[in-house]
Write a structure and sequence with these properties.
Elements lengths: L1 E5 L16 E2 L11 E5 L4 E5 L14 E2 L20 H18 L17 H15 L3 H14 L3 H8 L3 H11 L3 H15 L3 H9 L2 H11 L3 H15 L3 H9 L2 H9 L2 H21 L6 H10 L1 H7 L2 H8 L6 H14 L5 H10 L1 H16 L7 H21 L1
Length: 399
């Protein structure tokens, strides 16, 4: 069978020089972009030639066409794909070499007779990668495959397509039982990249029990580096997803996260996640939110859960761990969201613990003001801290 394909992909380059006549593309050459291809899947022979004004012919048997991105309308243009580095090209070649070797042992050629969908180069590449992850015995091949997969799933459509390839169970299984540290690390990064801002993918991971499985791995983690790495996919899945957060809390997520925040190695990432969860609850229950969203966040009781874990008495000791603006911003946000619900003595202690922070921020604000080219970071943060400390004077006046 012969399948004629026009592929519009600009991220892989080739030394092959096309003409208006059909030419055989060598096996060791990647398919050049923006050409008309003829691929005989019974023999594996690939031919290519330059595009002609009348191509593709609608009468051509099994002809499938992808419009090159630069030829489409601006409103339909997808996000530009970053160009592959030489290392990534070599990784793809190694993966494909492995798969080609496996193909030699098959007795039946690949059959596309019933193919009724648009052929997408990235989908085929991900399919090959998932096959390599399931069948390859080489640890290096699996590590390279995961590295390329993580690169691909940053594209929202690719991440959704991966779900069709049993990506959820494949990645979670590798996180739990990967034979090398790199395999587990790349698997966690791939989950985080796929779930980031992608609602459909988040649902698939939640249905695959990703939240409870990741929490279990965090509890069992034998190294600080692995614990920190696991916080990435966990945060990517539960952020902006109330249902996932309900599962997170049901499995002791608030207690686990607050305990991690007490340790310097995990404080930055865990406090940022706590801050984001508290912010979501506040914004989700605002008057401007729709009723369904309000109901979802009210039923979570996020702030109440962290109060029960004694967050009010935990934060003061954490203010001295780091001095970065990002870290202080997360802690100040947590104080802003919780201080009104803290007991009187705890609220007073929170405000007192901000005084040394205020002193440091004043100096940073002065330096920031003198540098007109710098965006304002420390000065707005100082203003927020001063507003919180101002409550200390009011509290003393009431006494």
């Amino acid at each position: 069978m012969r399948l004629s394909v026009l592929i519009g992909i600009s991220s892989i380059r080739s030394e092959f020089v096309a003409t208006t006549e059909w030419q055989i593309v060598p096996d060791n050459e990647p398919l050049p972009p923006g050409l008309h291809y003829s691929i005989d899947f019974s023999t594996g022979e690939r031919k290519a030639k330059l595009l002609e004004p009348e191509e593709p012919n609608a009468d051509t048997e099994s002809s499938l066409v992808l419009i090159p991105e630069e030829a489409g309308h601006a409103e339909n243009k997808k996000e530009d794909k970053p160009e592959l580095t030489e290392a990534q090209k070599q990784s793809i070649k190694k993966i494909n070499d492995y798969l080609n070797e496996q193909e030699l042992h098959k007795t039946e050629p690949r059959n596309f007779d019933e193919l009724g969908v648009e052929l997408v180069a990235d989908f085929d590449l991900m399919k090959n990668i998932t096959i390599a992850l399931k069948t390859a015995e080489s640890v290096e091949v699996k590590e390279r495959a995961l590295e390329e997969l993580e690169f691909l799933v940053h594209q929202i459509d690719n991440a959704a397509d991966l779900m069709q390839l049993d990506g959820v169970e494949l990645l979670l299984e590798l996180i739990e039982n990967g034979v090398s540290e790199k395999i587990r690390k790349f698997s966690a990064e791939t989950v985080a990249a796929a779930a980031q801002g992608n609602s459909k993918v988040k649902v698939e991971f939640v249905n695959g029990r990703a939240v409870s499985r990741l929490l279990t791995q965090i509890i069992k983690a034998e190294s600080d580096a692995w614990t920190k790495k696991l916080l990435y996919p966990l945060g990517a899945i539960i952020r902006d997803f109330p249902y996932a957060q309900s599962i997170f809390y049901r499995h002791g997520g608030a207690q686990i996260l607050l305990e991690l925040s007490k340790q310097k190695n995990f404080a930055l990432k865990s406090l940022h996640l706590i801050s984001d969860l508290l912010r979501e609850e506040k914004e989700g229950t605002d008057e401007e939110s729709d009723e369904n969203r309000k109901k979802q966040y009210r039923e979570l009781h996020t702030k109440k859960r962290f109060l029960l874990e004694e967050i009010c008495s935990t934060v003061p000791s954490q203010l001295s761990l780091f001095s970065s603006a990002s870290y202080i911003d997360a802690l100040v946000a947590i104080i802003e969201y919780t201080i009104e619900s803290c007991a009187g003595n705890e609220a007073d202690l929170l405000r007192k613990s901000l005084v040394p922070v205020q002193t440091k921020l004043k100096q940073s604000c002065v330096e920031e003001t003198h540098d007109a080219e710098e965006s304002q970071i420390y000065c707005p943060l100082l203003h927020r801290v001063e507003n919180l400390i101002g409550g200390l004077n009011s509290f003393k006046e009431e006494l």
